[in-house]
Amino acid sequence: MQKVTRLFDFPYHQLENNPLKNALVTKYGEKWVSTSTQEYIDKANAVSRGLLRLGVKAGDKIAVISMTNRTEWNIMDVGVLQIGAQNVPIYPTISEEDYEYVLNHSEAKYCFVSCTEVLEKVLSINSSLKKLKDVYSFDDLDNCKNWKEVVELGSDTSNQEEVETRKEKVQPEDLATLIYTSGTTGRPKGVMLSHNNIVSNVISSEERVPFESGGIALSFLPVCHIFERMILYLYQYCGIEIHFAEGLDKISDNVKEVKPDVMTVVPRLLEKVYDAIIAKGAALTGVKKKLFFWAVELGLQYEPYGQNGWLYEKKLGLARKLIFSKWQEALGGRLTTMVSGSAALQQRLARVFAAAGMPVMEGYGLTETSPVISVNQESGKGWKIGSVGRIITDVEVKIAHDGEILCKGPNVMMGYYKDEAKTKEVLKDGYFHTGDIGEVDEQGFLRITDRKKEMFKTSGGKYVAPQILENRFKQSRFIEQIMVVGEGEKMPAALIQPNFEFLYDWANRHEITVSENSDIVLNDRVIARIQEEVDLANTDFAKWEKVKQFRLTPDVWSVDDGHLTPTMKLRRKIVKEKYLDLYNNIYGH
């Protein structure tokens, strides 16, 4: 068997080692439709032949924009890559202005979209797209060519030999994809990743997350993000069935239908799942309620590898039987591993899900590092709650004198597309400067303490690390989103978006009648209650770090309204601009 060295080698590797009947499974309407490994490859080859007939040359860029993960995305990916072209995945939720920038900057020749919503955005800027020749859609739409036309164009196999010739010419160090980062500031940057950048990351990560062939995965994090995309290649490499969720809103249904063994998550999702479970527990009465919260309290003290002693493990066994088994059922009943990335995971979530028998292996990385730099692993004592695991094989990390994490290895990007100046800013002496602050402990576990760019100094000259504060405050069921502010000011303060669903429920129980978000955030009793939460969280911090004041915002912070990036990170500058009145009110400007 030839070694996997390029991204399109993964399905062929699967065909040779673990051919699957359900390699890729997508739900259309009410029906789950399976594509076998063989069909996956056959269709990808048809796409390659079709693209050649459309005149696609090696080095051409093909944009793919999909609202949800689906079989077609993966077929297109292989079809594009094996003829030496590059796949440019684009976040579906970015603004039309960003669509225009990315499509023009990448000089995309063709664009494949999932549905009407994406198509409308592309059509609205079509006149200003300089290089784009045509748009195809995965869904059947009246006003757009269908991607099946490309498959049909490739149904005649007479040019398969040209596909094979093109495949042979693709080298591991060649550019495979341009991923435009949803920067928290400024224009998106096109991260150039080679085949080897991502392949090396898949193979090093495989040692850490030992997936069993024949297992089932549920995929729902955006595949346009490198974290989920790398994981999809990893599933293919390990012979795991990939089922694509219909979207975030359908997760709880899909998880019950698919019954996955593994899935990737972001902390935000786990927070929501946890809050929903706690709300159900709070609605219980009597002994059932007591038992429920006894199990949760026990779970919050969890330590891996039986470190809490035999008595704790005995109690945990009972809690798992009586309470946590129901949590597992709610998540399909077979889930044994979750892999978390993209933001810091609260320790309480890591503990409670592990206690419930569904451990979360937290990792760390960036788009520029393809993405994994380090990840926890359950086997071999490689898991430490509160850390992002040990550094993966072939990757080197050193901590700069100011605490910044520097990374070197085969996973580090080729650079930013058409932007040598920005590339030079972050790539120095072979090391990628991550912009994150961290430390490696004596056992080799990496901890992230903050974003270098996000730390600020108060007017008293004290440094404040906002992320650490924000993660602690978000443990409150009253707080959905929070941004700690105070750069150059006399004290830290916070802008808070309450968890409105929970807040209205609380107000109802306390006979507070408010019908509008704009009223509830000004209600004295509500403010007093949230003050209690703030005071409680503040006890964990030094005097100069404590949040002295806060203001509640009436809006739900969202990607569409610009508060958050597509990976749910705060756009701090925009949030501050949106609520400048509240900010000025805090500091008396």
Describe the structure.
The protein has 589 residues and is α/β, with parallel strands linked by helices. It is 38% helix and 20% strand. Strands 2-1-11-10-12-13-14-15-16 form a 9-stranded mixed β-sheet, sandwiched between helices. The protein has a 5-stranded parallel β-sheet with strand order 4-3-5-6-7, sandwiched between helices. Strands 17, 18, 20, 21 and 22 form a 5-stranded antiparallel β-sheet that branches. The longest helix has 21 residues, at 310-330. The protein starts with 8 loop residues before the first helix and ends with a helix.
Keywords:
589 residues; alpha/beta; nine-stranded mixed β-sheet; five-stranded parallel β-sheet; 21 helices; 27 strands; globular
What is this entry, summarized?
The protein has 589 residues and is an alpha/beta fold. The chain is 38% helix and 20% strand.
